Recover the amino acids of this structure.
DNA sequence: ATATGCACCTGTGTGC
DNA sequence: TGCACACAGGTGCATA
């Protein structure tokens, strides 16, 4: 679920929690992508939420004393604020209790997400990530240079977090349609002006998706429980057989790197 | 180094 | 109604 726009939506919905203090943590089921125990998180108790940061699909909750709670939401993870009087629900795996009586809860049915507490600024998970696809410093010329000699499809290349951080299956697919580039093309064979178009398409797609509060395909919600609505503006994703909004050609689906990919055969030559 | 396939999980929808 | 199967927002590892 959560690609960059969804994580950014979660981050923004959590900003009102700045200043809140963690009063307790509970891990009811710690078998996530990286197993986590209550003992690993308890040093956060008594600390205050100072700020919220995002890089790619990672959310960083900065606490007082330099502690950092690092979250990744995998395919189905969400971080929800439950008001006072809340009751635990299915797949609520990690709870962070707040001094207001509310709780910040990591809910993740498939358990591909992760949470861990770091004691300093060194975060191994962020090492090697490319620039943030939405707010990072890069341009079309940089994309062009990075893509040289790469034989993998441009779509799989865009989803490589070491190249750009934040694009997943939805937004890589949508950005390629906006750029007019066939997803299966070899990344290394992009022309310079195509790389420029791709850069613009990525930035605008992500900006519009963030503005729409992300995409709620089945059950994405921000921390307050509100859905996003960018899924109503998909141009190709999950639209196989339907007409392209630009030219009327039927959208096609094919599998690249094991992931469903959608494109317009006319607009994306 | 790079590319591919699969494993890790649960839930949902479809067809028989 | 039950069952088998395909598929779903992501990443990491083993294997060529």
């Amino acid at each position: 679920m959560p690609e960059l726009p969804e994580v950014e939506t979660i981050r923004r919905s959590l900003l009102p929690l700045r200043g809140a203090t963690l009063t307790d943590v509970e891990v009811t089921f710690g078998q996530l992508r990286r197993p986590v125990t209550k003992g690993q998180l308890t040093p956060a108790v008594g600390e205050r939420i100072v700020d919220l940061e995002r890089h790619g699909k990672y959310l960083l909750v900065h606490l007082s004393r330099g502690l950092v709670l690092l979250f990744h939401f995998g395919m189905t993870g969400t971080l929800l604020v439950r008001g006072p009087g809340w009751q635990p629900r299915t797949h609520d795996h990690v709870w962070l209790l707040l001094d207001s009586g509310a709780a910040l809860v990591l809910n993740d049915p498939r358990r591909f997400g992760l949470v861990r507490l770091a004691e300093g600024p060194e975060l191994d998970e962020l090492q090697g990530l490319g620039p943030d696809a939405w707010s990072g410093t890069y341009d079309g010329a940089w994309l062009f240079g990075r893509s040289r000699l790469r034989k993998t499809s441009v779509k799989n290349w865009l989803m490589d977090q070491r190249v750009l951080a934040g694009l997943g299956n939805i937004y890589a697919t949508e950005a390629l349609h906006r750029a007019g580039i066939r997803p299966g093309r070899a990344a290394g064979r992009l022309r310079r002006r195509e790389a420029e178009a791709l850069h613009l398409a990525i930035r605008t797609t992500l900006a519009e998706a963030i503005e729409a509060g992300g995409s709620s395909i089945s059950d994405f919600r921000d921390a307050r429980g509100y859905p996003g609505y960018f899924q109503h503006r998909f141009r190709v994703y999950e639209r196989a057989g339907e007409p392209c909004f630009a030219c009327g050609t039927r959208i096609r689906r094919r599998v690249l790197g094991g992931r469903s990919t959608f494109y317009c055969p006319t607009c994306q030559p």
